[in-house]
Amino acid sequence: MIKMQQNRLLLVLASLVGGVGLGVLIAFLVFPMNDADLGDSPSQEVRISTQTNNDEQASLATVSGDLEEIVEIEIASDRRGALYQVLENKSGDQIEELLRQSLHLDYSKNLYAVQRLLFAELARVDAESSLELVWETARTRWATLLNIVANHWSSIAPEEALRTFSSLDEPWKSLAIKTVFQSQGTLSDTQVAELADSFDIADHLATWKYDVRIEEVIEEPRKAFGLALQADTTESHRIRMFTHITSHWIEREGTENISSMLSVVYDVFADTRFLWTPVVSEIAVSNPEVVWQQLSSMPIEVQKLFASDVFKQWVDRDPVTAFQTVTTQEYLDANESDFYSLLIPWVRAVADRFLENLELVPVNWKNAAIDLAVDHLTENSPPNRVIQLLTQLKSMGYDPTEAAESFVGSWSYEDPIAAVEWALENLDLESFSGRSSVSFALGRLALLNPDTAMELALEQPENMALEQGVVMTLLRQGQFDRALSLIPKVRVSSDYPFSYYRGVNLLLIQAGRIDDVLALADQLDQTEKTKFYSSMARPWVRFELDSLLERLPKLPTSETRTVIAQSVLREQEYYPYLTVEEIEFVESFISDETN
């Protein structure tokens, strides 16, 4: 310590002789006042900052591996020096044990800094153990700590690092592999490419190469955007490239002339489909109102492309002002066809206070706004919140019927029985859309509990035919045995729809279950049998022609054979399923009385 103080004194004297500025610079370079927590391993000498008071110096002198004491040291260079003093001559197992001990200490900023150093040191001597310990930390730390491990591992054994990281799950796999590509310095391009192929990470190498190429041209936004557009890469990676290019562009040029930047974006992106969104959003995010004003003075074709992306950033900041700007009669007269694209982000921005802002919506757009609000709330809130909103809308004189029906459909995926029960009490079952919503929810319930679904359906008026929907849902989902067990419960009336028979027969015959179809026919009275057999013709001749020709002569009665033969020949008029010989064969089953 005395030697160190003497050195500093000599430097001060040197500054008086050679100039104060030069002396201070030399002192700073030789004795840094506050080293970073991450860096190369220190030398044998432990540096102690002159900012340390006498009590701190005494504490440091007695530090003997107690991590809690080291964590309490506030000055980074002193903390780092004390830790390296503890780590001196430690084996990988001992470093690992210290790191494990640190994971059980109460979190603090200093502790995290100490852990980063421990991960770096362990990675140098035992990278695999260091990687395993990453997953024992808080998930929010994984990215940073994995990057530290990958960085040090790549400098020691890049091939081993790539092999190990290639088996990780995403996104950690991509993060670690990219760090190795960036940090390793011992493998040639050819070797890296061969390893990428052998470890099945060639796509990661291609992604990294694109990132490198982007950095080479990033000072030229047109060229950089063009490269990103043409890159053979994933959509998510392309978006990251766009965002990176744009943020660098704004950082370099500021936002003084947004319109010129948007003109460049229009020139580069006008022929693409919505790929400009991350670029325009990044440009607008700092001051969307100013960007909107400048956009409004640009050609109409530019406005139409970029308005919704700029507006979205604006309503996130100031939904009332932004919406008032686009609901003036002047704006609506010029842009009403595009207004819906602006209504969507506004509704999402004010979803928590939608009712108090509903008066801002033009009259002819209120129903659309209500539908959007209910849909948004359905996706992001529990059902009781949606029900509360629907009740409030109704009490205020609005008609939320369409929104309620859509809500029932979405709700039935999560809790079909609750959705059905609420729909039966609150929807208009006399309307086609109301019945359709209930039928859909009953279908969702049928997939979980077909008996309960059928029971609820049969409790409703017969003319609603809700039980038919239960059966058809099961058939469409391939649950044939369940459907067949419930078909006898379906109520049959004089106005029984022919479409139901045709739907049942279509799905069963497509599945090759001809015997089941014929067995169903046997359960019907003669009037319904005629309808049923007639509805068999179309699917039978289309999907099971060989079966039809084989079974037609074996059907139990001549009347049955005649009905099906006539129906088959009617289908032949619309599409030539049968050959001449087959037509003659089918015609032979039509009795003379019916000719």
Q: Which percent band covers the strand fraction? A: under 5%
Question: How many alpha or pi helices?
Answer: 37
* Rg measurement, Å: 37 Å
Distance between the termini: 120 Å
Query: Which residues form runs of ≥5 with pLDDT under 50?
Result: 1-65
- Helix/strand/pairing category: mainly alpha
Which range best describes the helical content: under 10%, 10-25%, 25-40%, 40-55%, 55-70% or over 70%? over 70%
How would you describe the shape?
extended
Q: Report the major sheet.
A: none
What is the mean pLDDT? Answer: 86
Per DSSP E runs of 2 or more residues, the count of β-strands stands at 0
What does this molecule look like?
There is one protein chain. This protein is mainly alpha-helical. 71% of the residues lie in helices and 0% in strands. The chain contains 37 helices and no strands. The chain has helices spanning 2-18, 20-30, 54-61, 67-71, 76-87, 92-102, 109-125, 127-134, 142-156, 158-165, 172-183, 189-198, 202-217, 221-230, 235-253, 258-269, 277-284, 288-296, 300-317, 319-326, 329-335, 339-349, 354-357, 366-380, 383-395, 401-414, 416-426, 432-448, 450-458, 466-476, 480-486, 498-510, 514-522, 526-543, 545-551, 558-574, 580-587. The model is unreliable at 1-65 (pLDDT under 50).
Briefly, what is this?
The chain is an all-alpha fold. 71% of the residues lie in helices and 0% in strands.
